Amino acid sequence: MAAEAGVSPTAVSFVLNGRDGGNIAPETKKRILETAERLGYEPHHVARSLRSQTTRSIGMVTDEVASSPFGGRMLAAAAERAESAGHIMLVMDLHSRFDGEAAAIHELERRQVDSLIYATMGFRLLTAKPATQLPLVLLNCTAQQDDELSVFPDDVAGAQGALNHLADLGHRRVAMLGGGWDPLASPMEQGNISGPIRRDAFVAAAKERGVEAGVSELGWRINDGYRAAMSVLDVPSERRPTGLFAITDRVAMGAMLAAARLGLDVPGDVSIIGFDDEDWFADCTVPPLTTMALPHLRMGDEAAAMALDAAAGRTITERRRALPCELLVRESTAPPR
Amino acid sequence: MAAEAGVSPTAVSFVLNGRDGGNIAPETKKRILETAERLGYEPHHVARSLRSQTTRSIGMVTDEVASSPFGGRMLAAAAERAESAGHIMLVMDLHSRFDGEAAAIHELERRQVDSLIYATMGFRLLTAKPATQLPLVLLNCTAQQDDELSVFPDDVAGAQGALNHLADLGHRRVAMLGGGWDPLASPMEQGNISGPIRRDAFVAAAKERGVEAGVSELGWRINDGYRAAMSVLDVPSERRPTGLFAITDRVAMGAMLAAARLGLDVPGDVSIIGFDDEDWFADCTVPPLTTMALPHLRMGDEAAAMALDAAAGRTITERRRALPCELLVRESTAPPR
DNA sequence: CTGTTAGCGCTTTCAA
DNA sequence: TTGAAAGCGCTAACAG
Fold first, then answer.
1. Which nucleotide has its C1' atom closest to residue A8's CA?
2. How far apart are CA B197 and CA B209, in angstroms?
3. Torsions phi, psi of B83, nearest 5?
4. What average pLDDT does the segment B164-184 reach?
C-alpha cells in the first residue's frame, strides 16, 4: 500500500488514522486516500491490535442468558451498540455451569477484549462480583456493596406503576399473583430478586393508594398462575378482587385461563396486568395482555455504552442504572364494573 | 519468559505448542514447563494470531436470531461447541436490517475469523448465499442450488412424526391448525418455509396412514390457533376431529383455549400436539403440551462443529444436515374415546 | 538437539 | 513535511 502510493508507511498510517495534524502535504494525503480507495485497502485489524494493545471488542459472559427468552434481546441490543462504535461482541455462555465463570473471563482477557459485560438471566444480586482487571459492567444484576457499574430494571417503579394503573382505573380490591420460592427453578434462577422487590413495592403502593391488596405467591409459571388465580377468584363476588397483578406474563396467562374457567370476563369482571412483556407472548393472548415491559433492549444498549465508555477511560456519571419499565396498556385491563 | 527460563523463544514456543517432536531435551522441556507454570505465563493471543494467520474464532451473523426466542439456544449451543475447541464466537446481529449483511460479513473478515456461521430466525431458503471467501455454514437456512454447508431442522420427518403419533394413538380424523401466509409477520419471517413443508408432509403422511386430515391455515400465533380450532372444533361431534396438529406451540395454546371455551376436555375429547417446543412454553400449559421439538441445541452445535472442521480444512462428509426433531410426549395427547 | 534470525502488518518515535 | 527504523509477542525456517 505504501509502496503503491509511493509514500512511506508512516504517511499512510497518519492519513488513515486522521492523525495528520497538518504534518502531511495535502497533495500526498490526497494520493494516499485515492490509492487506498482504489486498492480497497483496509488496515489489518490483528496487526493493529497487536501494536495498539486494543482490540476494539467487548467480551460478554452470560449465565445461560443466551438461552433464555430475554437474553437474546439484551445480547442483540448490546451487540448493536458495540457495532455502532466499531466494536464487536465476543460471547462466552456459561450454560448453567457456575464454575466456568473464571475460566470464561480468563479466556476473554487472553483475547484482549477492552471491556467486559457480565449478564445474568434473572435479575440477581451478586454476592461477589466477577474478578477481573478489565472494566466490568454488570447486566441485569448488581453487586451488594460495590459501586460496580451495573444496569438493571427498576422493578420497584414497575410494580408501583402496575398498581397505579389498576388504582387509576378505579380498582379498590386487587391481588398480586405468583412469585415466591420455586423449588423447580434452575439454580441460576434461584438468585432472582425480582419476586420480593415487585411484591413489596406493589403492596406498599397499594397501601399508599388505600387499595386493598392480597398476595398469592404460588410460583412463576402458567399453571402456578392458574392455581393462584383460582384460589383468589373463586370466592363470592363481593370479596373477589377486580384487579389482578401477575408477577410475570406467564402467570397472567394462567390467570386468564382461570378466569375463563370460572366464566369471568376479562377485563369486564376482572382486569389482569402482567410483567415482563415476554416476546410476543403478551400480543398473543385473548384479550391482548396489558403488561409492564422490562427494558431489555435499553438495558443491553446502556450496558454496552457503559462498557465502551469505561474502556475509553471516560468518566461515568451514573454507575448503577435502574432503567424504567414501560407500561403497555392493551386490552386486559379496564375500569371495574 | 524465554529469558527467565534461560532458553530461546523457539524452545518455549515448541514446548508450549506441543511441537517438540523429540527436538527438545527433556531437561529443557521440564524447565520451560516449570517456569511457565511459575510465571503463570500464557502466550499472547493477538501476537499469535498475527503470526499464524488464525484467530481461533468463528464469526456469527444473525438476522435478529439473537432476539428471537429460539435464537439464543442456537447461539449458546454454537458458542459452547466453539469454546470446547478453544474458539470463540464473535456475533454481529443484523437486527432486521437486510442491508447490513455484507457489512457484517466484511467486518468479521477484517477481524480474521476462521469461519462464518450465518443464522436465521425462521427456517429459510436463501436465494443467494452470503458472499464470502471464508468457510461458511448456514444455520437454520439452506441455499437453493448450492451444496453449501448447512444445518436445518427436518420438518418433513417432524410433521410425519406428529401424524404418526396421532395415528398410533388411534385417531382417524385429524386436522392441522395454523400456518399460511401471515401479513403481520416481519419481513424476515416471510421467507419462512416451515409452513408449507410441515403441511405437505403432514397431509401426505395422513394419506399414507389412511387418516382423514383437514387443514386450517389461519396464521401462526395464539389467537390464530384459537380461531382455527374454533372453526374446526365447533361442529357436530361425529364430524369433529379427535386429534389436532398445531403448526407451532403458540397455535396449540390457542387451540387449548378454544377447546376449553367449547367445554372440550384435552386430551379426553381432543388430542393436541404442537411443534417447536418453545422455551418452557410447552411445560407450562394445562395439561402439559405434547410437542415436536425443534433440535435447536443440536443445530447450533453441529453448525459450530462444521465451521470448525471447515476452518481446519478437514473434509466434511454430509454438507447439508437435516436434523431430526424429537417427539416430546406429555399429556395433551391420548387415544380418542 | 538448540538458538539465531527474520518476519506477520501495523504504529510511532526520532532523525533527516 | 517526510521517512527510516524499532518494535508489539509470537512462530518457523534455517543454521549451528
1. D3
2. 18
3. -55, -45
4. 90
Chain A and chain B share a number of CB contacts under 8 A equal to 145
Residue of A nearest to B279 (CA): A69
* Interface residue of A83, A97, A112 to substitute, partner B, most B CBs within 10 Å: A83
State the pLDDT at residue B58: 97
Measured between beta carbons, which residues in chain B are less than 8 angstroms from residue A88? Answer: 90-92, 107-108, 111
Q: CA B32, CA B275: separation in Å to the nearest integer? A: 56
Residue B72's φ and ψ, nearest 5 degrees, are: -55, -40
Say whether A95 and B75 touch across the interface (CB within 8 A): no
Instruction: Give the nearest partner residue to A42 out of B45, B110, B280, using CB atoms.
Output: B110
CA distances from A187 to A96, A183, B247, B280, B283 (A): 8, 9, 32, 16, 18
Phi, psi of B312 (to 5 degrees): -85, 0
Separation of alpha carbons A11 and A279, rounded Å? 52
Please report the DSSP string for B127-190 in residue order: SSPPP-SS-EEEEEEEESS---EEEEE-HHHHHHHHHHHHHHHT--EEEEE-BS--TTS-HHHH
- Chosen from B75, B106, B230 to mutate, greatest number of chain A CBs within 10 A: B75
Write down the H helix ranges in A53-193. 71-84, 100-110, 155-169, 187-190
Which of A80, A90, A250 faces B284 most closely, judged by CB atoms?
A250
Domains of chain A listed by start with CATH number:
2-43 (1.10.260.40), 56-153+296-324 (3.40.50.2300), 155-293 (3.40.50.2300)
Residues of A in contact with B55 (CB under 8 A): 46
Predicted confidence band of residue A183 (pLDDT cuts 50, 70, 90): low
pLDDT digits (tens, 9 = 90+) for A307-320: 999 999 999 999 99
The label of the residue with cell 427453578 reads A185
pLDDT value of residue B185: 62
Say which amino acid occupies A11. A
Asked if B69's CB is within 8 angstroms of A67's CB, the reply is no
